[in-house]
TrEMBL record:
Pfam families referenced in this protein's UniProt entry, alphabetically: YtkA
Keywords recorded for this protein, A-Z: Signal
Protein species of origin: Pedobacter nyackensis
Name of the protein this chain belongs to: YtkA-like
Residues covered by the YtkA-like domain: 215-255
Membrane-spanning residues: none
Source species, domain of life: Bacteria
Signal peptide: 1-18
Amino acid sequence: MKKLYIFFLLCSILTACKKDVINQTVTDPKAGLQKISEVYALGISTKVELWAEKDLTTGHNQLFVTLYDSVSNQPITKALVKILPVMDMEMNGMYMSHSTPCLQPESSEVENTLFPFAVVFTMPGNTDQSKWSFDVTIKRDGQNKIGTAKLAVAVGASSPERVKMLTTTQGEKLVVSYYFPNPPKIGINDLEVIIYRQQDKMSFLSVDNFLLVMRPEMPAMGHGSPNNINPVHTKNGYYKGKVNFTMTGDWRINLDLVNAEQKNTIFFDLSF
């Protein structure tokens, strides 16, 4: 009887341990993401992978870089990572390049093996005549060498359009885009508006001095919606607010960009 009791006790312990192992299963941080590109950064023994939530299109895109030691294949958890988006274009035998707004990784330490960053693509690029790439600069923790990698990416056109280029009344060239952290639905939705100013072809600066006035409407139905919260600046050119969609269909979000010197108005159309 005593032996039988010990047997059942051991079975219970093993079963409990097995449940603990199952409960401790670690979710892959890249689950739900798709790999866009990968390449090796020469000179620093590092593999660079680019991941995204979905196919890249014009407008705001959330992306992630993962780094692996190319010898041990272990994730690199600490490094300085800088990304420069570059559009290379050929027109009538002439070659030119320009960049686009890019929110750099905010920390040198990974978030669950990922270095998050964001890009606002101003135009599509997926042909030999117009193509996007990322120039990635990496300095691993504890190393003096700096590695570089070029990741080719294809960017399609968003429809409806999610980014606008605006020349203000003061002559500034702005890039304005919007982003829903969650898919739009009937009711109150979080909305982010991103505003950057073009300094030159390769440099864009975040803009933090606009007062945004948002006016959603359904042009075909002849009405707007109540209880909207105008986006206000948080950091890095991001303005956060809330928009109320009272029904599904075709919506237009009108935005007034106001500061002490000027007022400019744009709009974005969307359907859901």
